[in-house]
């Protein structure tokens, strides 16, 4: 997913810290479903939808609601008229949101790439940048957090439950394919052991 943001910068919500694509951004987006939220704090439809999206995101990522945060990241792509308006809007949203900096021409690139003509719009992407849902606004309204399971399956995410405890320390430094290779190796090994067991039983039977 970081490839989508190559050479670009995102900012942390309510912080001046920039998230560099090469390392921090790569870790932030790796093995997650990405939501691109195109909106504006001044748009009446966005003002009505944004609290719904906020609740949706919080219920999937906040430890008050879930034991383990869902593999989900959101980037706000604003149509706000001023930087102050964008900042004011973001202050009312979850801290974990990221944002394209105000005035960055990359916002227009994203609008064109994902054919966003009206706001609010929520584009749902796989970790590799493929589109899962072109605009999930109505789906989020209708289904709430339940729709994340469908996206998770479509994205074929590596469930972190499969990772060994010691893997968590190294997770940020490893390739997305490493857990898949380890899991495949374990499955192949189990299959091989089963086959050996069946073969041995066949040899022992008269």
UniProtKB/TrEMBL annotation:
It comes from the Eukaryota. InterPro entries: RdCVF, Thioredoxin-like_fold, Thioredoxin-like_sf, Thioredoxin_domain. GO terms for biological process: photoreceptor cell maintenance. Residues 1-142 form the Thioredoxin domain. The gene is Nxnl1. Signal peptide: none annotated. GO terms for cellular component: mitochondrion. This is NXNL1 protein. Pfam families: Thioredoxin_8.
């Amino acid at each position: 997913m970081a490839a989508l943001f190559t050479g670009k910068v995102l900012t942390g919500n309510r912080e001046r810290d920039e998230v560099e694509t090469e390392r921090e951004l790569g870790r932030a987006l790796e093995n997650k479903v990405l939501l691109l939220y195109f909106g504006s704090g001044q748009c009446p439809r966005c003002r009505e939808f944004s609290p719904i999206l906020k609740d949706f995101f919080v219920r999937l990522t906040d430890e008050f609601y879930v034991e383990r945060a869902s593999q989900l990241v959101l980037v706000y792509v604003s149509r706000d008229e001023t930087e102050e308006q964008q900042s004011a809007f973001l202050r009312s949203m979850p801290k974990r949101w990221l944002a394209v900096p105000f005035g960055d021409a990359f916002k227009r690139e994203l609008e064109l790439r994902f054919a966003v003509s009206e706001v609010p719009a929520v584009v749902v992407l796989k970790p590799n940048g493929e589109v899962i849902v072109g605009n999930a606004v109505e789906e989020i309204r209708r289904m709430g957090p339940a729709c994340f399971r469908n996206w998770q399956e479509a994205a074929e995410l590596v469930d972190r439950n499969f990772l060994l405890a010691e893997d968590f320390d190294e997770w940020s430094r490893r390739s997305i394919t490493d857990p898949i290779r380890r899991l495949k190796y374990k499955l192949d090994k189990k299959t091989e052991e089963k086959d050996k067991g069946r073969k041995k039983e066949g040899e022992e039977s008269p």
